[in-house]
Amino acid sequence: MKTVLITGCSSGFGLEIARYFLASDWRVVATMRTPSTDVLPRSEHLRVVALDVTDAESIRNAVDAAGPIDVLVNNAGFGAASPAEVTPLATVRELFETNTFGTIAMMQAVIPQFRERKAGVVINVTSSVTLKAVPLLAAYRASKAAVGAFTESMAMELEQFGVRACLVLPGRAPETRFGENARGRMHGFDHEAYADFAQKVFAGMRDPSSPITQARDVAEAVWRAATDASSPIHIPAGADAEAWASGH
Predict the structure, then answer these.
(1) Structural domains counted in the chain
(2) Which residue in the list 20, 21, 26, 140 is annotated as catalytic?
(3) Residue 194 annotated in active site
(4) For a surface tag, which of 92, 100, 175, 219 has the fewest beta carbons within 10 Å of its beta carbon?
């Protein structure tokens, strides 16, 4: 039986990914900043471990507690929306600290065991906004695009050891807490230069006829990356992400 370690499992994509792998008879190490078993099904194959990806000691403790794993899924992250001109640098740093540096730190903590065993898969959940520019998300997009660039180069380095690295790129997912978390980090929308523009952008995002991504779409894409050695390095997840990836 194989083991997967997933970051950011308290809600959204991470929670659905954990449920999917449990239902597929994998051992699951589900990590959260504040551990809770209430959101996940009871299973002898489930371990819930505390993890803050911005804290080096927390990462060491979580990786030690997990023991040998076969797949690492870096899903922990958050979003923020604001015009680039007025995005506080503190928010930019916070985005990169979690979305970018937290992901890199987790990879560096786990890859040695993969390399030594000459087997393993790293799956980084980024975003379809890395495929196409979206206004008001410049800092968030940059933090995820950096992970993409890092992963692409790293995949070439790890291939010689039989270790794979993939990127799963979800689209817009209203059913997750992404929007809720982003709203807590919204700045500048009352700025006289951007208010009207922002309203138009958000009106387009709320269009009910636009395709969206379901959490299940992301779980299925992660499963494909984990289990199909022929899967591409970039895997869009969700109807909107697939449309963007195809150039539409």
Answers:
(1) 1
(2) 140
(3) no
(4) 175
Instruction: Give the separation between CA 162 and CA 49, rounded to whole angstroms.
Output: 28
Contact present, 209 and 6 (Cβ < 8 Å): no
Per residue in 131-148, pLDDT (tens digit) is 998 899 999 999 999 999
Q: Quick one: pLDDT at residue 213?
A: 95
Distance from C-alpha of 210 to C-alpha of 9, rounded to nearest angstrom: 27
Q: What single DSSP character describes residue 192?
A: T
**C-alpha span between 6 and 135 (Å, rounded):** 30
**Token pair recorded at residue 104:** 């890199």
The count of residues in the chain is: 248
Whole-model pTM: value is: 0.92
* Strands (E) located in 59-153: 71-74, 120-125
CATH code, 241: 3.40.50.720
Q: What is the pLDDT of residues 168-201, one digit of tens each?
A: 999 998 765 555 555 555 665 678 888 888 888 8
With 90 as the cut, is the pLDDT of residue 53 above it?
yes
